[in-house]
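Reopening this one. Same input as before:
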Amino acid sequence: MATVHAIPAGFPQTGEVLDGKYQIEELIGSGGSGFVVAARHLVIGQRVALKFLHQAVAENPEACERLVREARAVARIKSDHVARVLDVSVLPTGAPYMVMELLLGTDLSRLRRARGHFPPSDAVDAVLQAGEAIAEAHAMGIVHRDLKPSNLFVVARPDRSLAIKVLDFGLSKSPERRKKPLTVTGVVAGTPHYMAPEQMQSLKHVDHRADIWSLGVLLYYLVSGTRPYDGKTLLTVWNAIRAGPPPPPHARVPAVPPGLSVVIMRCLERDPARRPQSLAELAQGLAPFASARGQMSVEWIVRALAT
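Same output, byte for byte:
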């Protein structure tokens, strides 16, 4: 579905007030299943983000249930590295929408294009910060299944250091979902360039190691400036994966430490059993290449998965 460039007709428009409290300001993002607008809470003055489903998507009860389950999944994660969910409500049409904290900054996809490839320690720190949120999710049995640069948002802390916020748990798999599945065997969803091979075959049976593959692709992309497997469709990316492993990142960018390349290439093993078996194992492998701030993330991830 094409990205929209204005708030679609049939939804509250700029200046209108939703639920008697959210005054719509502007469209700030759009994707295949929905779009996000900035709004202001008229009572307390807080600016928030409202996530709506596209009209055609909202006609699917499963998609509506997925939005509600996304809100529940994010609400359970206490890490500072997720975008907070503040509320879920419904439009007059009956379609649900989500109220979230409004993030000011950019995503890793835009930042990578602006900066070129990242210094290795910056890339490792970014992934480790995202890993704090994902580790907490994994500890609760939640698998994200759509980790990619555009779903990792970069915001500035009060001290001007940068922090990563993980977005869009819309494809996440949780214990609650397993009790009442929303995805059938054979259905494939996600972003091909960052999708684990087993996820390309079926969305249903992937586990947390699919997220580890995605983080490996993300690291490869950040430190080298190129994706390990490219292609315009899922089939072409799948064929690239089947053709064999890509060159290690340090072969593309000599500044990448060979040891970091080894960790990244382990994440890209086609067989999930040959990848790091947990985010704690991955974080410990990345620790030698992280900054002092990144070391704190490693410790947090290990603790989150120790219980």
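So the earlier flakiness isn't reproducible anymore. For the record, The chain is about 40% helix and 15% strand.
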